[in-house]
Amino acid sequence: MHASLTSRYLKHFILLLFLAIFAASCSALSTAAQPASIAVPDGWNLIWHDEFDGKRIDPQNWTFDLGAGGWGNGESQFYTSRQENARLEKGMLVIEARQEKYEDSYYTSARLKTQGLQSFQYGRMEARIKVPSGKGLWPAFWMLGSNFNGNNWPLCGEIDIMEYIGKEPDLILGTLHGPGYSGAMGISQWNRQTYNIADDFHTYAIEWEQEEIRWYYDGAHYHTVNRADIGDREWVFDQPFFFILNLAIGGQLPGPVGLDTVFPTRLYVDYVRVYEKTQ
After folding, report:
1. Parallel, antiparallel or unpaired: strands 212-217 and 202-208
2. Which one of the listed residues 158, 168, 209, 211 is annotated catalytic?
3. Tens of pLDDT along 69-112?
C-alpha cells in the first residue's frame, strides 16, 4: 500500500513539474515575441510615441506639407508625399532628398507634421535621429504652435529642438522663436562637438515646463530659455504645439548646395516620443 501511494505521489509530482516547465516555456516564447520595451526615464510617463515599426507612415500621426516656393527661407526643394521622399524602412522613418527635376524645382524632399493629428503641451519631447552629411543640407526636428494658420508666424511660437546645417558638421542648434525674438533674433544656442554629428544616431530632446524650456543632446543639457529671458515680450509657449520633421535643401541658414554633396541623401528617424512628468 505504501509503495502504491508513493508511486501515485511521484506521478502527480512529475505531472505538475511538466506543466510548470511547459508554462514557463510558453511564457518565454511569448516574451520573446514582444517588441523590445521602451526604457522610460525616471520621473516620466510615456504618453505618445511613434517607433516607425509599421509598413507605412501612420496617417493618424503624420501628414505632409507639400510644394516649393522657398518656404520663407530661400530653400530649393519641392516637398512631396511620394515614397521616394518619405517611407518606413527597417523600423525607421526615412526622409530622402533627391536631385531631380520636379515641377519647377531641381530637388525633392519631404516635410512631415502632426498638425491637426497630435499636439502636446509641456513634457519631454525626444527623437533619435541620424542626420545626413553634405553642404547645403538642413534637417530639423521642431514644433509650431497648434494655432499656426500659415500667416501668424512668429506669433504662434516655434521650438527648434534640433537643427543641423551640413556646412558645420560638428554643430547642433537649439532655438526658440516668438513675437519680437524670431529669425536671426531667435534665442539660440550653438552646441559644438568634437566629431562629425552625421556619422551616427543621436538623441535630441527638450523638457518643456510652464515657465521654462531646456534642450538636450544625447542626454546632456546645453540650453535653457525661461519666461524671464523674454523680458516684456510675449511668452507664447503656454499652448499645445505639433511636431515637424523635414530635410530642407539650401536656404539662408545652410547656404548653397556643395558640389561634393551626394544625392540621394537620407535623414533617418528611429523614434519620436513624448513623456509627461509623474505626479
Report:
1. antiparallel
2. 158
3. 999 899 999 999 999 999 999 999 999 999 999 999 999 999 99
Question: Of these residues, 163, 207, 209, 212, which one is catalytic?
Answer: 163
The mean predicted confidence, pLDDT, of the chain is: 90
Q: Is the pLDDT of residue 34 over 50?
A: no
Nearest-10 Cα torsion for 174, 179, 182, 188: -30
pTM score: 0.86
Q: Which residues contact 21 (CB under 8 A, 6 or more apart)?
A: none
The residues near 12 (Cβ < 8 Å, ≥ 6 apart) are: none
User: Do 46 and 38 form a contact (C-beta atoms < 8 A)?
Assistant: yes
Strand (E) positions, the chain?
A: 44-50, 63-65, 77-79, 86-89, 92-102, 105-109, 111-113, 123-130, 137-145, 158-163, 171-177, 187-192, 202-208, 212-217, 220-226, 241-249, 265-277
The answer to whether 158 is a known catalytic residue is yes
Strands 137-145 and 158-163: antiparallel
Predicted pLDDT at 240: 98
Distances (CA, A) of 265 to 5, 108, 168: 75, 11, 17
Q: Helices (DSSP H) in the chain: which residue ranges?
A: 2-33, 227-230
Residue with cell 530653400: 75
pLDDT at 6 over 70: no
Closest to 132 (Cα-Cα) out of 110, 114, 113: 110
215: cell is 534642450
